[in-house]
Design a protein that fits this description.
- By secondary structure, this protein is of the alpha/beta class.
- The chain has two domains: 151 residues, Rossmann fold (3-Layer(aba) Sandwich); 116 residues, no CATH class.
- Helices cover 42% and strands 19% of the residues.
- The strands form two sheets. The chain has a five-stranded parallel sheet with strand order 2-3-1-4-5, sandwiched between helices.
- Strand 2, helix 2 and strand 3 form a beta-alpha-beta unit.
- Helix 1 crosses helix 7 and helix 10 crosses helix 11.
- The longest helix is centred in the C-terminal third of the chain and has 22 residues.
- The protein is elongated, with a radius of gyration of 26 Å.
- The N and C termini lie far apart (55 Å).
């Protein structure tokens, strides 16, 4: 038996679900509230994929929490490398999060209020806190910041899979609702007004030759490319998986199409996941 196991634990509301999302994107097989007594069987059954992140908290019950240290020791003897990530936040922050989400803490009941439940939870998880390899206080961390911290702690290289989409469109059909950045190229010379080009598209060589001969077109391409290139590292190191750059002209047939193609080619030199889409281009 061999493999890798990451136990994600901590008090309720501290960000365990967000952590599992980051780890899943990084290639871990993630399971929330997995019965810890089944961990040995899990690694025996999974021959092809033995990289797991398991969330363990008070929902597992006191007996499972108490059994975890011995189970991790057994797995270690069998060749499974394990680490414990403990997430927590100060009690006022956790109480505010529960109030905002209107979720019920698993330890509250008619005799136990939220503050008492959080205190009891801290006591039950104290052994796992003492055993933890990494502890993160999420009190002041937004979800994206937590993702960055987890990626840094575990060398997950965040942002390498960020998909950058460059999309052309026509303003007369509305602005794309999924656009993160929007650029208007209607100020550029319009091939539509040239009879010999009106029936062509922005992907045709005739239109490309015409627009390439206009200095302001290349200036627009360079401006858009330089802007996105300047801020792309920030999105790459953040928690974003998708970034959409929308480029629009009047009808979405000529200028926006050509500019989008050129911007995509330029950004492809610095980022490996760039695709171009033409929303309104007639086929």
């Amino acid at each position: 038996m061999a493999g890798q196991l990451l136990i994600v634990t901590g008090r309720s509301g501290s960000g365990k679900s967000s952590a599992l999302n980051v780890l899943e994107d990084a290639g871990f097989r993630c399971m929330d509230n997995f019965p810890v007594t089944l961990l040995p069987e899990l690694f025996r059954q999974q021959a092809a994929d033995r990289r797991f992140a398991i969330s363990v908290d008070v929902r597992s019950g006191e007996s499972d929490i108490a059994a975890l240290p011995n189970l991790l020791s057994q797995l270690s003897e069998a060749g499974v490398e394990s680490e414990i990530l403990f997430l927590d936040a100060d009690t006022p922050t956790l109480m505010r999060r529960f109030s905002e989400t209107r979720r019920r803490h698993p330890l509250t009941d008619p005799e136990t209020d939220l503050r008492e439940a959080l205190q009891r939870e801290a006591e039950l998880l104290e052994t796992l806190l003492d055993m933890s390899d990494i502890s993160i206080n999420t009190s002041e961390l937004a979800p994206g910041m937590l993702s960055d911290e987890i990626a840094r702690q575990f060398n997950l290289a965040p942002g390498e899979d960020l998909q950058l989409v460059v999309q052309s469109f026509g303003f007369k059909k509305g602005v794309p609702i999924d656009a993160d950045f929007l650029f208007d190229v209607r100020t550029l010379p319009n091939p539509f007004w040239l009879p010999e080009l009106r029936g062509h598209r922005g992907t045709d060589q005739e239109v490309a030759d015409y627009l390439a001969s206009q200095p302001e077109v290349q200036e627009m391409i360079d401006s858009i490319k330089d802007f996105i290139a300047r801020w792309l590292p920030g999105f790459r190191t953040g928690s974003r998986n998708y970034l959409t750059v929308a480029i629009g002209c009047t009808g979405g047939q000529h200028r926006s199409v050509y500019v989008s193609e050129q911007v995509t080619a330029e950004l492809g030199k610095i980022h490996s996941h760039v695709i171009v889409r033409h929303r309104d281009l007639k086929q």
